[in-house]
Amino acid sequence: MMEKILTNKNKSFFWLLLYILFWSLVPCILRNSLPLDTVEAISWGHEWQMSYNKHPPLSAWIAEIFFLAMGSFGLYFLSTLCITIALYFVKKTSDLLFFNSKNNIPYYLFLLSPVFSIYAVEFNVNILLIPLISASIYFYLLSITKNEAKYWILLAVFSTLCVLAKYTSILFIGIFFIHSIFYANAIKNWKFYLSGAIFLMLLTPHLIWLYNNDFITIKYAMARSVNTQNNRIYQALLTFCGEMFLLLPILPLLIVKRLKFNKEALSLNFVKFICVLPLFVFPLYALVTGNSTKTMWSIICCIFIGLIFQERKNIVNIIIILNIIYAGMYSLITAFRPFTRSDFDSEKFVEIVNSDAKLTYENDSKNIYVAGEIWLGSIINVYHKKRPSFFINANEEENAWFTLDKQNDFPKSAIIVVANSESEMNKFIKKVSKYKSISSVEIKDYNYCKVQEKDFVFKFKKCKPEKVLYTVL
Length: 473
Prior knowledge:
Elements (H helix, E strand, L loop, with lengths): L1 H6 L1 H22 L5 H10 L12 H40 L27 H22 L2 H17 L3 H14 L7 H23 L3 H9 L7 H15 L3 H6 L3 E3 L1 H4 L2 H8 L1 H12 L19 E3 L4 H21 L9 H15 L7 E5 L1 H10 L5 E4 L11 H6 L4 E6 L2 H11 L11 E3 L1 H4 L16 E5 L1
């Protein structure tokens, strides 16, 4: 019965709708606060820059748009939408490659991994890259098979969007380039050069921004991949094992012979480049540089993994059952685990801080800024009705939007400073004092364990007495 539902085009919509509704609604109900990466992206997106101190701009722009349109629910919906769009393009790619094949290709195999459900709750650059890479691969395949200008142009557009989402996508674009030169004879095709020209043209505003801002985003990206002093071979193996962990649910299916390798697919150079080679990109990088990478960077390498397999016994039921288990695990863990940031009542915190800001500045028309710690500051930016500009870490170098106009506006505005500790607070106040004269400071604490002890869900949680600090200057 389940097989018929999923394989029937008219009924497969039901399962997609169920997936979208659960992973959009349940986190929204069980969490008091959006995840760190998500609130951070929204606070960046509010400034509408061509890049930011940590990441290129696309994820921030999209996060801001969905938040403005649908509130907190919109960000969870956005994550599920990314996975759904990726599934569509993987299927289209599979249909294009194997339209004459008698084999049953489990293109949806990547959904076995909890990465695409539990982890995907937190919208960030890695989640946004999943549909963009999928679309880029699909349009690349159309470009080299049908050789129509519109597909080469679409390839350029989606490749640009990939780079504007995350720089690691350049590794995939490099794979496209190598394959097109050596296996698609693209070097003699004028449309190949057209695509490259459009790609560079679309990327130019971002490159100009990077030049004008001392390449701050690239510096951060390089800093995230640090030399661990480990043996390079060990580091490469560690990176590869991390990728295999993401694909771990596939192993039992191979053992019990529900899956076998698709020889037809593995004979295609395109499949080798798109499905197999990406699994070795990050380990090779670690081997050459000795630098570490984050396991979640590799999720884009897993999207097309189903194309190298042939389904021997139907595994759709297993995917459905596993995803039901993932949903149950997420619900129980989120509801009953000890107090974490996801339980932090962001709206209540902002309400208390804002009441102090109004007491300090009776005229509610005064501008408000927030400065200090990234998570707390982003929460105030996201949940405050005025959406105040966030002066991240009170550091001018990290805030390209902290223009001369805003610096001149600082002395006559309310500045909310937030921190996790007294030493951190003193550091932030000292930095803010460069732009605003400060006569006296009253630091207050917000003990979220005490404030939220009457919440229904909170009664099932253990919380150490912890507090965060804030002041209004």
